[in-house]
Design goal:
Number of domains of chain A: 1
Distance between the termini of chain B: 65 Å
Helix content of chain B: 25-40%
Bound molecules: zinc ion
Oligomer: heterodimer
Mean pLDDT of chain B: 91
Number of strands of chain A: 11
Number of helices of chain A: 15
Distance between the termini of chain A: 15 Å
CATH topology of chain A: Amidase signature (AS) enzymes
Structural class of chain B: alpha+beta
CATH architecture of chain A: Alpha-Beta Complex
Shape of chain B: elongated
CATH class of chain A: Alpha Beta
Radius of gyration of chain B: 31 Å
Largest interface: A-B, 45 and 29 residues
């Protein structure tokens, strides 16, 4: 067994069987992560003390006869989720020193299930971004090419799992913040139906869109996390009181009889040739597995981006009002309270956050509300209706997860170009649908030297997570794309071999672990 | 003070803290006072990631309040965010209700001290959350020369209902009567303590004037910071007078917010309409819409009983109780309930019952600190006593004694009469014998009487009562005394 590479399921099985202990897992992980993260920068803070403490607690519970679904499984937490006693920054200067006095429900459920928290991962400030570059507190790299972005906003959570610094992680997805970085980092990223997972303790970006979900190196591990974190939470009024059918262990192996919708408006024509080839091959694999491809249409999907960039900023302009220097976080004093607010927020928020607060404040202003916010809400309803109609003809909709593979740092300085990265993910977010990205191959970018991973997005009707995970699992087991790539940060088995002093680059895409 | 030419038009908006166990959107206790910042949690402090969960009891209280005034309960309602920055408002937005309040319409019927009655339509009652409280302090902790503010968030998130009245009120006295009726009703419904001094009732008044008989509204000023019914009365009266003076002086009233200065007895300008906020209301995405089914409305409606106004009207119109005494009864729901039982037991002798209830019994309750309803006297015992008095079976002196005994021991009035031998002696022969004895024993007083000092009659009556150990029928005693004296 190798706790650095093993699946969550395998680690939990071994810890529950007491063939290894949570403490051993923790001791293997801690030095490894400290070493690797110097290159990846996935974490804003490591929590070895807490990890060891939880490991002891897990071992005691297992010794007392409990079987825990995530016994001893190392997890990373996106730093917009509260974990009591840890800094919880949302990647922002305004919360740089904020220590959470409570724990988010989803995080607590992971801990209760036996998971070991490795640390808090980097993100675009307040989860606003598609590359990770908007973090005010650190730079996270793509584990498959250190010169490229890991994607965003759940940059560190994707990078940590893709780079074998965590077995699992939690991210949050508002318009694609789990799915896009998952595609970039060669991992599975899963956003459940809006309301399936409690948002209590998740620092809000856009409340009506935000949803917590897992990153994992396999669909089955993602399902394992989903089974643990999904379900009604009395602390979140928008969490849905609806039975969660356990998904892990009940995932299908083929796609016989499954109608796969290919969206006319999500054609592959805009992609470069290499990317297009990857998706054409992926669609062909679906057919090979027994699926029937069906053409569907989402006529209003083209308004997704515009709709999203009114609703999300409007909600964020209000959600971020609480960061005012009065009760916690950064305070820059001024002559009076008004000046204190202005100075604090000017110094505390980065440019993208300010841009969205301004857009949102404008959209909600008296006289503009009907033209912008209300119209966007109507468009949102239409988009959801389009999906509902499309699902009359198919069981699952597939598309690229992102408009391109991971790009180089600073490649997209224009905000709108960056917003376009989420072209495929945003419509499903607006409709609240369960959606995931599963690795589907790699393409050599025009400006690159090695193939970069890509993700296939799958989206299903509301509350059909188990079916969705099943389709993804069948595809994943038949193609095994994730395992064809090796992250640049080579894994070193602990602890007998001295750690390498230089980063060893991966050899080729044929290199098999 | 309103010149006959001018008419005041007043609309009241008031905020009432609901008496729920916990706050509106979190589990913190909803209690007045306490050490600063001890009744707080991540939600009411607006810590990052915290989310509101609505308090169902607060919503039910709203329905009770609305239905008590005949409001309509729309089937769909929602919470909105009212966005503005203020240091004692943790989220920098207040969760409130913008265009879909929990209750719409309704009428508040009220009465004034002199017994005249009026009514004011309600626009709506909506639910929102309270803010914290700021205290300004200087470096040495004193208020003078304050350089910083201290904030106590214990009150932040306490459920608050905002009652918005239509501009149907025409005088300061009516405004107070309207508020008093709201307060009585909310208190009796159990939805609020309505203590102005603790800030659980806060009110603003929109005041304008117009020529009597005009239909269009004048420009209004909004008066804030009125902390008692007395200050509401004074502030509105003062504002009406000010506006009349402005207009009669050739000026114009401007639309503005004016604060009430209790010490100076005047309102002063706080901010004009131009500085008004754009609150950027939008539906709160952290909360789901509220659906109130007809079943729920009917279930709540079924719990409602007679309102204070209805009770007042019944006492005055049906029982013939005067307005002042009816008000006294209505102001104490437990007392009124006790009174109603006694009236029922006494076959509707409300006048006699109210005389005891607000007379000797009120005095005894006051002296002992035990409310009547919690004491030993039963409504049935009082009804017996009333019957004994009205049939002249006992005299008023005995009645007083019986009340005292009932108060300290309880039991039946009849039993006390028998045990203590308090039955009034109305037998002519028996009283005559005593009268003869008294006259014989007081020859000098008799002589005085004959000499024209008729005021000694009181002394002689007293002597007869004393000799009869208080049991003689006093009017019979007087009658016989006069007869006998005249015969001498
Ligand atoms: Zn609280």
């Amino acid at each position: 067994m190798d706790p650095l590479k093993d699946s969550a399921r395998a680690i939990a099985r071994d810890v529950n069987a007491r063939t290894t202990s949570a403490a051993e897992v923790a001791e293997a992980l801690i030095p490894h992560v400290e070493r690797v993260d110097a290159q990846l920068g996935a974490y804003l803070e490591l929590t070895p003390g807490l990890m060891r403490e939880r490991a002891r607690a897990v071992d005691a519970r297992v010794a007392a006869g409990e079987q825990l679904p995530l016994a001893g499984v190392p997890v990373a937490i996106k730093d917009n989720m509260c974990l009591m006693g840890t800094r919880t920054t949302a990647g922002s200067k305004i919360l740089e020193t904020f220590v959470a006095p409570y724990t988010a429900t989803a995080v607590q459920r992971l801990l209760d299930a036996g998971a070991l928290p490795i640390g808090k991962t980097n993100l675009d400030e307040f989860a606003m971004g598609s590359s990770g570059e908007n973090s005010a507190l650190g730079l996270t790299r793509n584990p498959y090419d250190l010169d490229r972005v890991p994607g965003g906003s759940s940059a560190g959570s994707a990078s940590a799992v893709g780079g074998f610094e965590a077995t699992l992680s939690l991210g949050s997805d508002t318009g694609g913040s789990i799915r896009e970085p998952a595609a970039f980092c060669n991992v599975v990223g899963f956003k459940p139906t809006y309301g399936r997972v409690s948002r209590y303790g998740l620092i809000a970006f856009a409340s009506s869109l935000d949803q917590i979900g897992p990153f994992a190196r396999s669909v089955e591990d993602a399902a394992l996390v989903y089974d643990v974190i999904a379900g009604k939470d009395p602390l979140d009024a928008t969490s849905v009181d609806r039975e969660v059918e356990p998904a892990a262990g009940a995932l299908r192996e083929d796609l016989r009889g499954v109608r796969v919708g290919v969206v006319k408006e999500f054609g592959l024509g805009d992609l470069d040739a290499a990317s297009r080839a990857v998706y054409e091959a992926a669609y062909a694999d679906l057919v090979r597995l027994g699926a029937e491809l069906v053409d569907v249409t989402l006529p209003t999907a083209e308004y997704g981006l515009a709709t999203y960039y009114l609703i999300a900023p409007a909600e964020c302009s209000s959600n971020l009002a609480r960061f005012d220097g009065v009760r916690y976080g950064l305070r820059v004093d001024g002559a009076d309270v008004g000046e204190m607010y202005e100075r604090t927020r000017a110094a505390g928020f980065g440019p993208e956050v300010k841009r969205r607060i301004l857009i949102g404040t404008y959209a909600l202003s008296s006289g503009y509300y009907d033209a912008y916010y209300l119209k966007a809400q109507k468009a949102r309803t239409r988009i959801a209706e389009d999906f509902a109609r499309a699902f009359e003809r198919c069981d699952v909709i597939v598309s690229p997860a992102a408009s391109s593979p991971a790009f180089r740092f600073n490649a997209k300085s224009d905000p709108v170009t960056m917003y376009l990265m989420d072209y495929y993910t945003i419509p499903g977010s607006l409709a609240g649908l369960p959606s995931l990205s599963v690795p589907c191959g790699a393409a050599l970018p025009e400006d690159g030297t090695r193939p970069m991973p890509m993700g296939l997005q799958m989206t299903t009707p509301l509350f059909t997570e188990r079916a969705l995970l099943g389709y993804a699992h069948a595809y994943e087991r038949a193609t095994m794309h994730a395992e064809k790539l090796t992250p640049i940060v080579i894994l070193s088995p602990p602890p007998v071999i001295p750690s390498p002093t230089t980063v060893i680059l991966s050899l080729s895409k044929d290199d098999q672990r | 003070m309103t010149a006959p030419y001018w008419e005041a038009v007043i609309g009241i908006e008031c905020h009432v803290e609901l008496k729920t166990v916990s706050k509106m959107f979190c589990g913190c206790p909803n209690e007045f006072g306490g050490e600063p910042n001890t009744k707080v949690c991540p939600v009411c402090l607006a810590l990052p990631g915290a989310l509101p969960v609505p308090n169902a009891m607060a919503i039910e209280y709203m329905l009770r309040a609305g239905l008590a005034f005949g409001a309509t309960i729309p089937p769909h309602s929602k919470f909105d965010r009212k966005n503005y920055f203020y240091p004692d408002m943790p989220k920098n937005y207040q969760i409130s209700q913008f265009d879909m309040p929990l209750t719409q319409g309704g009428v508040v019927r009220y009465w004034l001290e002199d017994g005249t009655r009026g009514e004011c339509r309600l626009t709506r009652i909506h639910l929102e959350e309270d803010t914290g409280k700021s205290t300004h302090a200087s470096a040495d902790g004193r208020l003078a020369g304050a350089t910083s503010s201290l904030i106590d968030f214990n009150r932040a998130g306490v459920p608050l209902m905002e009652c918005v009245g239509e501009p149907d009120i025409r005088s300061a006295d009516e405004a107070v009567a309207f508020l008093e009726t709201l307060a009585r009703t909310f208190r009796e419904l159990g939805v609020s303590d309505v203590k102005m001094e603790e800030g659980s009732l806060r009110c603003d008044a929109n005041v304008s004037i117009r020529k009597r008989g005009a239909t269009e509204l004048g420009t209004k000023a909004e008066i804030k910071n009125m902390n008692s019914f007395r200050s509401v009365r004074r502030a509105i009266a003062s504002e009406i007078a000010r506006q009349i003076e402005v207009v009669e002086g050739g000026g114009r009233v401007i639309q503005e917010t004016r604060g009430w200065d209790e010490a100076a007895g005047v309102t002063h300008s706080q901010r004009s309409k131009e500085e008004a906020h754009d609150y950027r209301y939008f539906p709160d995405p952290d909360l789901v819409p509220i659906d109130v089914t007809a079943d729920v409305v009917e279930r709540v409606r079924a719990t409602l009983t007679e309102t204070p106004y209805e009770r007042y009207a019944r006492y005055v119109d049906t029982l013939g109780v005067d307005s002042k005494r009816a008000t006294q009864l209505v102001d104490d729901a437990a007392l009124a309930a006790w009174f109603d039982r006694a009236v029922a037991a006494s076959d509707g002798k409300a006048q006699a019952v109210v005389a005891f209830v607000l007379g000797d019994l009120a005095r005894l309750a006051n002296e002992s600190g035990t409310p009547l309803a919690a004491g030993k006297v039963t409504p049935e015992a009082l009804a017996e006593l009333v019957a004994l008095t009205s049939s002249s079976a006992i005299n008023s002196k005995a009645a007083k004694q019986i009340v005292e005994t009932l108060w300290s021991e309880g039991g039946s009035a009849k039993a006390i009469v028998e045990r203590e031998g308090l039955a009034q002696v109305s037998d002519r022969g028996a009283v005559e014998a005593i009268v003869d004895e008294v006259l014989a024993a007081n020859p000098k007083v008799v002589a005085d009487y004959k000499a024209g000092k008729t005021n000694v009659m009181g002394f002689l009556t007293g002597a007869v009562m004393k000799a009869s150990r208080g049991k003689a029928n006093p009017s019979l005693a007087q009658e016989l005394l006069k007869e006998k004296l005249a015969a001498r």
